[in-house]
Structure formats: C-alpha cells, structure tokens
Amino acid sequence: MQITVISITDLAEIIKANVREALAEQAAPQSRQHAAHEYLNMAEASKYLQLPQNTLYVFCHERRIPYSKRGKRNYFLRADLDEWMASNRKQSVKEIEVAAMAQLRKGGKK
Known about the structure:
InterPro entries: DNA-bd_dom_put_sf (IPR009061), HTH_17 (IPR041657), SinI_DNA-bd (IPR010093). By secondary structure, the protein is mainly α.
C-alpha cells in the first residue's frame, strides 16, 4: 500500500471540485422542475399532455380545457393543465367499493 503525499493547496482544489460537482448534481433535478405559473404554447401543451394539437384545438373550441387567447394563439397555464388532468381522474374499483361501504354504513345508522 502506497501513501501519496499531497499539498494543502492540492487538497483544497480536490475538495472544491468535489463540492462543485455535488452542487451541480443536486441542482440538476431542480432545473427540470417546471414553474406552475409557466405558460405553454399549443405545441408545448400538446407535448406536455401527450395529445395531438388538433385535439387541443377541439377542446379549446368546446371550452373543455382552460386556456388563454392572445391574438390568434392559445396559451395554457401548466397549473391549469395539471388541475384539468386531475379533475378527469376516474376512480379505481377499490376506491368505488370503499366509498360504497362508507355510504352503506352512513345510511345504516339513520
């Protein structure tokens, strides 16, 4: 086993490099997070929702999805799209059974 002697300056540089690398790794996931108040254009919203742009145009025309219009362009708030997706969530069979049992218990106490 060999022991390598390094100077204090070299040790300081190694520590600085490791700290920079750790901070960069920690900051990377945060940079991928999107602001809820961020506006998306039609193409970005289509990609975000994984829906064709034509479908989004139909949803806008039928007022089935929240959007803002600026001139001839439609814009979508990311938070509104998230809320819209959550509002269309379907319950699982298990959730329906639990709700039904709760309703039966509530009705049985009257």
